[in-house]
Design goal:
71% of the residues lie in helices and 0% in strands. It has one domain. It is elongated. The chain is built from 3 helices and no strands. It is mainly α.
Length: 72
Amino acid sequence: MSHNLTVTVDDELWDAMRKHNDVRWSAVMKQAAKEKIEALKILNALTKKTALSEEQIEALSVKLGKRVSRRA
């Protein structure tokens, strides 16, 4: 079964998105949601195995993400 989701974006983002009609924005949103769910699964697994708080792990993951993206 599939479900619909409505996403509200501000005018600036909407204007930028409209300049790229060739992009399937629903597919972009779906992929972003899948990636976030996977990140949350990892976060939950790490939280169970460490004394760090969820906030500390989240901050660490953001720092690591920034370091990795600089290499790409």
